[in-house]
Amino acid sequence: MSIYATIELSESGHQSLPQEFDPNNEGFVYGLDLPRMDLGDWEEKLGVRPISDFFDDSDMLTDEEREEVGLPPAERKWAPVEDGLRTLRALITALEADGRSDEELWDLRVSERILSNAKPGEKFRYDVG
């Protein structure tokens, strides 16, 4: 089973891959590598909020399923877009300087573009599922 982390904006909803990242409509997607990236050392070194803080798995189980296993009802975790941009931009800059490939930075760059285009005042989350 593949786990994806895709962006949902509080007002604009779930976000698709921006056209500029798939100009020939080849069906590219984003969010598959993000849950597997080990960025903890980088995030700590850079003093930014961890990407995982923005992950929200509240939609993975229904309220009934959560009740069956003894979990409280899910609450969505929203964060300011600015917090996500701060983390993403710091990571992209540091990882580029470290010589990381475009492929390794794909999800970070897509995320940065989506959040850069968010409406003022919107909040976001990575919908993990």
Task: Describe the structure in brief.
This protein is of the alpha+beta class.
**Total of domains:** 1
Helix content: 25-40%
In terms of structural class, how would the helical and strand content be classed? alpha+beta
Q: Counting H and I runs of at least 4 residues, what is the number of helices?
A: 4
Poorly predicted sequence stretches spanning 5 or more consecutive residues: none
Give the helices and strands as they follow along the chain.
Answer: EEHEHEHHE
Shape: globular
Largest sheet: 5 strands, mixed
Hey, roughly how much beta strand do the residues contain? 5-15%
Rounded mean pLDDT is: 91
Structure summary, number of beta strands: 5
Whole-angstrom Rg: 15 Å
Q: What distance separates the N and C termini?
A: 10 Å
Report on this structure.
The protein is an alpha+beta fold. The chain contains four helices and five strands. Strands 1, 2, 3, 4 and 5 form a five-stranded mixed β-sheet that branches. α3 runs antiparallel to α4 (102-116). The radius of gyration is 15 Å and the shape is globular. The mean pLDDT is 91.
Key structural traits:
five-stranded mixed β-sheet
SSE blueprint:
Blueprint: E1 5-9, E2 13-14, H1 40-46, E3 55-56, H2 63-68, E4 79-80, H3 81-97, H4 102-116, E5 123-128
Parallel strand pairs: 3-5
Antiparallel strand pairs: 1-2, 1-5, 4-5
Helix pairs in contact: 3-4
